[in-house]
Amino acid sequence: MAEIHKIILFRGAIETLSYFSRQLEVHFKEKGCAVFWVDMSNAKESAKKLAKFCKPKGTAMITFNFIGLGGEEAFVWEKGETIWEAMQVKCLNLLVDHPLYYHKYLEKKHPGMTVFCLDRQHVAFIREFYPWNEVHFLPTAGNLLLRDPGEAASKESLIPYLERKYDVIFIGNYAPLPDLAKHFPMQSKEYIDYYYRIIDDMIAHTDLSLHEALIKNLREEIGELSTEDLKTGMVSMVFLDLYVRTYFRAKAVCALAEAGINVHLFGKDWDKLICAKRENLIWCGGQVDSAECVRAVQNGRICLNVMPWFKDGVHDRIFTAMLNGSVALTDDSIYLRELFSDGKELRFFALKQIERLPEIVKELLDDPETAERIAAEGYEAAWKAHTWEKRAEVLDAYLR
161-176+242-389 maps to which CATH number? Predict the structure, then answer.
């Protein structure tokens, strides 16, 4: 393959993913690459300039969640081939959700595309159900506060632990469970009851990944199924993922509030959460962007995270907490247990024992010296290996 000197990145679709890409940009500019930004809010205009920018076999695109690879009209030429195919652009596609959400895209062959997943079980899932895709494991990284486009974030002096404004923060949106249930497919009561049985099974068996839980319940209900029938069944029930993760998100926040612990919430619709001690929940407004999230973490002593059902991977909130000097408090995964030790670089809690969460938080708040040490250990570990610059180095190696 020719040497890659041109990189295409995407913005204007999902704010969080654009922010990830801004941090990747820094590495490639430092390596001397020219960077072209596709603005998905005006994709046709960007597409007009792409052909001039691209050098056949010397250009790569780095995207998330199939943005630009989803058959968007702006990137399809007259003969039906995409600009990526015509210009022989190498495509690195990072998925930050379960692959089931991208079933219709993974079913197709995308020449020149390599997929990266943030959970090793997701990698195994694609290799089993969509084996024509090249796929590798690449966890997300922590976010830093960026100021000028293309400028690296420095290892800033942190707000001292005891001078931070918030004891406990949680970053993420809320959706009332009855509202989510309204989006279940309009089917018979029998189907609805079946969905709730799967939800109950996932709540009872928190070690099962999304696809493991769905396959288990499909086989118990129907018996042996072909690979194609399994995929069809799982895709039709992927909405259960959001329901279960929201259930535990609300349960964790309420457990703290009802134990008398103040929790500052950054995200939309937390005013709709039903909680016995709502006075201990401080809602800091609606939807927040990535920079606002980082600023909140920089002022938080403890950053609570509930994983989006990643059982052998990681969410960027954990590394963001560590990079910004907060104690990351999260449910665990196989991957996280390999990386870190409870009480050293972060603190773990178990979804099955969520009632112990207030005890863990009170231990940290009552012993600021220990909490500060954990935050410092996490900070060093994250700076060493879990910035977006480090992830860019891995992606760069695939291109070279």
Answer: 3.40.50.2000
